[in-house]
Amino acid sequence: MWYVNYFHVQIFAILFLFTWKLNRRKGFYLRLVPGALVYLALPYVVPGGFFAPWLRIGWFTFAFLIMLVLAAFLLAFCYKVTLKQVVFYCCLAHTLQHIVHCASRVIALIIRPEAPWGQAVELAVFLVFTGAFYLLLRRRFSDAQALEVKSRFLVLFALFSSLVIYLVSYWTTMEEGETVGVFLFDIFTCSLLIRIMMDNFRILKAEQEQNLMLRLLRQEQEQHELSRDTIEVINRKCHDLKHQISALRSMTGAEQERSIGELEQAVLIYDRFAKSGNPDLDIILAEKSLLAEKQGIRIRCIADGARLGFLRTEDLYSLLGNALDNAIESAGHEPEEARRIIALNIAPRGSMVSVHLENPCPVAPVFLDGLPVTTKADKEYHGYGMKSMCYIAEKYGGVLTSRYEDGIFVLDILFPGEGKAEKSA
Length: 425
Fold this sequence. Notes:
alpha+beta; 2 domains; five-stranded mixed beta sheet; two-stranded antiparallel sheet
């Protein structure tokens, strides 16, 4: 027979194309190469191959199912993946392979190519369709964490759908014959199934990100409470020390006077902090100013803090605390000390309230969907600062934008004048 069934070759190619950037096990190529050779050659060395009598029960054959399971074992053998990831990836690969198979059979039934052109048609369809699906879905597979499958529902749905495709399709082909209509319906159904799987994943991923953001916001709120207590202690100590210093001035001795003057200068640091008209904002500015000062960074602030009175304390801290933390980290990489200046301006703009922040940024950031992408290696826990800031801005009906201009990173946030558009308060 001129036609050679290479279902398992297609499954292998699709599976490893979409998993190529996963975290690999040690000795990856020593695992992959011999494992792939054995897997790809297996149906051709077993007597009867896919259609061996001892693998069949009536019209049903276990051969294709066995090769799909072996592909799953090969994936787990080569990559550091969970069982849920293995099942999901294999079901996705099987669904894509079935689309390729149906498309090639539709073309074959329409043009009825003579041997050996039928096999060439299937190969061409496989390359075209697989490449097209990869281009459409590649953003989901951009790094090792692209599909961190944790949902049991998503995995069970993918597994059930794949089994239905396998059983119904094979039964239809064996018992009712091949028709263009059946194959076109299969293509439509499988395409819809992939869309559902990827949308479910996107929704679940968004829920995970939101839960992580809310957890980070709670941690930041706790940090804010700690910072408030710390600043209050500093204020109390400074107040006490002022009185002690006044008493010490009555003593004699030039050296003692000089020492007292230095001590007074140190404890009067609080007087240099901005008084914005918003006690919560003053605490944030005091804390971040101390942090910046340690790195030789100056924060120049012109702030009408009362304009942000509509923001809840924890939201204000998360919003401006994150913004200033990012600005300080970026300014700390500036080689010229004279340029290590962060400018913060909070003022009315018409009927709106504007928050404008500028900081030096020696390396141009990469933007994705209008936000800078984190440069930290641990992207699972980093990179949510800007997302949480956007979340808070939108919560109060505002909008956050960012841009990079001539070595300066600029962050702008606009709120309705009195914050009446808060959505979730």
